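Researcher: Please translate sequence to structure tokens.
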Amino acid sequence: MTDASSAQRWSGSVALVLASATGGVGQHVRSVARGLTVAGVSVLVCGPAATQEQFDFTAAGARFAPVEIPASPTPADARAVTALRRALAATGVDVVHAHGLRAGLVAVLARPAAPLVVTWHNAVLAGGLRGQLSRLAERVVARSARVALGASADLVERAAALGAVDARLAPVAAPALPAPRRRRAAVRAEFGVAPARPLILSVGRLHPQKRYDILVDAAARWRTRTPAPQVLIAGSGPAYLQLAARISAARAPVNLLGHRTDVADLLAGADLAVVTSDWEARQLFAQEAMRAGVPLVATAVGGLPELVGGAAVLIPAGDVDAVDAAVRDLLDDESRRADLARRGAARAATWPTEADTVTALAALYAELAPEPSTGNR
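Model: Translation complete:
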């Protein structure tokens, strides 16, 4: 490995490549772009124009080149490969770092002259033909990248098993949230939640992997409690219409908030945070909740157990009874909620920070390109 002092002095250029993103991957790439730019690295972000509009990588100090990589494979992927190849040729970067399998595959097919790093952010959960194609893409990406970085230990093991020559753990730090702008009472008043009524929060993309159907079904059971908890789900995505119909049919006390930029405020008003996903690496909302001292109930999947340790209530995935029981137990035990809040904040203080993440990446880039070029900056 390159030593830390060399990493801190590395001032080359890197292209960060990502596909269509509305959640954690986009936030992570923006965080990395900002940190690297501050450290003197020249950063080019390549991805869809809509992703740039949402995360504004240029405001973080990066340059941006539009490369339309949709979340799912399409015939347009050939155009994405061509666009990425042109963007890299025009800029002349020292390292290419793709985030996610879709971006990784496009980057591999573009055949960059610079060393390629791919961060694996998600596991392949799809079945059928789509799952087969995704697993084929996994193998191609694993064997083609100079370094495969996994956001959780199971992803590192997966990349190595598929033939990665160099697979390493690279935990993804959640960008620090700003301080809440509103007080707890004001946040709850927005949703008509009385002071004594429990408020339960979940934040994430509305995607089948998140299993918000399980949370909705559990919430429908809580209507009989006095007072009945109110559930807020913040996020956008393809499962919106199905979830809205499920909420209506079950008469569940759940509000779909859409995309929100005030997660810090929502956490300030919440009594519990819940994650019901079938799989996660180091889910950003789980990190945000624990940092904010909000007790967390989460599924014991992927990298979540190693992330939270004993500072959250872990439950099996896909089990509405487990969600129901865990939430009821915590709502009935104020002292346990307070204990989890304290332990969660203490656990969060041990995690790598955004600065740690940037330092580790700079060290990797310095290892792969110890003598960065000086042109095209």
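Researcher: Any highlights?
Model: The radius of gyration is 21 Å.
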